[in-house]
Amino acid sequence: MTDLETPSSAYIHVPFCQHRCGYCDFTLVARKDHLIDDYLAAMEQQLATVEPGIELQTLFLGGGTPTHLSIEQLERLFAAILSRFQLSDDCEFSIEANPLNLCIDKIDFLQQSGVNRVSLGVQSFHSEILTFLERDHQPEQIFEIVQNLRDRIPNTSLDLIFAVPGQSLQNWQDSLADAVGLGIPHLSTYGLTIEKGTSFWSRQQSGLFDLPADELAGTMYEYSLEYLSSQGLQHYEISNFARPGFECRHNEVYWTGHPYFGFGPGAASYLKGVRRQNHRSVATWLKRIAAGESPISEEEELDPESRAREAVIFGLRRRVGIDLADFESRYGFTLDELAETAMEKNITAGLLEQTETHLRLTQAGCLLADSVVIDFL
């Protein structure tokens, strides 16, 4: 498939949470459950714009917290999705979840509805770190919830956050060991970043806390690479580790530059070379759809060179890197034509390495990936 063909992947954004954590800058609303019915009606309207019968290979419900919705509300959302799309026999059907939303009845419902992959926002196995991050669960609850989940939906992924104020290297090592001990097949690790507009940004600017030194954050990341690899979880993307066959197929669609649908406030789509993003404001998205207006806030048709440069930026996230021959075939440029200077600079610096077939980040390059990809813009 090229990025100009009909997508076989869809992302559904569910913007509801019980609480907005201090580090979160995602599109969501907290404690506004009275809007859920309006959201479901709007989602039914937005989905109705799609020609029915398209088969999906991946379907991803993100948020927010999709599992914040009740079983009845999820049932209505799933029905709206399945009224337009068909799921292939091996469709990866993922949903993001918070631990305390997952009672047995809801897990059973998800399994019976065809959900076969759950991404669980654990973040840490230490109570003091969870308290700082404003999470509502405790470490001892994680083990029972994950076991209940994996008994029904074995393809479970955990999210963990490192470089948190007050977090030691030992603390991070213990959390990784706890996650591995649960036998999960996929793990995502994210360094804590403080985004402008979040409550953590205001607190940091007021001097209420400092992030760990870059050296400690780098050591935590490097330990993740070594330890998780030794435990059979392969590093397949900058922040993601998986046992063979358990890589997130939906995210691979983004990283390999293939098209996808996006529905809901803040959701992005990539259709026939055009990138669109819906309004991030939940209220604006709701009002526009209710009025029969377009929910799109941004739209950009990428020219061939922009498509190629974007493909480099996404492609370098994958540890396998960019297949040089495939890249030229898909985008009509060689990497030398597109960015010879950027390549030479970063190869010399030890941040990129080139083989006969691929260009990829080195381990050192993974630590500085954001600065590397800027050179390719």
From TrEMBL:
<keyword id="KW-0411">Iron-sulfur</keyword>
<keyword id="KW-0479">Metal-binding</keyword>
<keyword id="KW-0949">S-adenosyl-L-methionine</keyword>
<dbReference type="InterPro" id="IPR006638">
    <property type="entry name" value="Elp3/MiaA/NifB-like_rSAM"/>
</dbReference>
<keyword id="KW-0408">Iron</keyword>
<dbReference type="Pfam" id="PF04055">
    <property type="entry name" value="Radical_SAM"/>
</dbReference>
<dbReference type="GO" id="GO:0006779">
    <property type="term" value="P:porphyrin-containing compound biosynthetic process"/>
</dbReference>
<dbReference type="GO" id="GO:0005737">
    <property type="term" value="C:cytoplasm"/>
</dbReference>
<dbReference type="InterPro" id="IPR058240">
    <property type="entry name" value="rSAM_sf"/>
</dbReference>
<dbReference type="InterPro" id="IPR010723">
    <property type="entry name" value="HemN_C"/>
</dbReference>
<comment type="similarity">
    <text>Belongs to the anaerobic coproporphyrinogen-III oxidase family. HemW subfamily.</text>
</comment>
<feature type="domain" description="Radical SAM core">
    <location>
        <begin position="2"/>
        <end position="234"/>
    </location>
</feature>
<protein>
    <recommendedName>
        <fullName>Heme chaperone HemW</fullName>
    </recommendedName>
</protein>
<dbReference type="GO" id="GO:0051539">
    <property type="term" value="F:4 iron, 4 sulfur cluster binding"/>
</dbReference>
<comment type="function">
    <text>Probably acts as a heme chaperone, transferring heme to an unknown acceptor. Binds one molecule of heme per monomer, possibly covalently. Binds 1 [4Fe-4S] cluster. The cluster is coordinated with 3 cysteines and an exchangeable S-adenosyl-L-methionine.</text>
</comment>
<dbReference type="Pfam" id="PF06969">
    <property type="entry name" value="HemN_C"/>
</dbReference>
<dbReference type="InterPro" id="IPR007197">
    <property type="entry name" value="rSAM"/>
</dbReference>
<keyword id="KW-0004">4Fe-4S</keyword>
<dbReference type="InterPro" id="IPR023404">
    <property type="entry name" value="rSAM_horseshoe"/>
</dbReference>
<keyword id="KW-0143">Chaperone</keyword>
<dbReference type="InterPro" id="IPR034505">
    <property type="entry name" value="Coproporphyrinogen-III_oxidase"/>
</dbReference>
<keyword id="KW-0349">Heme</keyword>
<keyword id="KW-0963">Cytoplasm</keyword>
<keyword id="KW-0560">Oxidoreductase</keyword>
<dbReference type="InterPro" id="IPR004559">
    <property type="entry name" value="HemW-like"/>
</dbReference>
<dbReference type="GO" id="GO:0046872">
    <property type="term" value="F:metal ion binding"/>
</dbReference>
<dbReference type="GO" id="GO:0004109">
    <property type="term" value="F:coproporphyrinogen oxidase activity"/>
</dbReference>
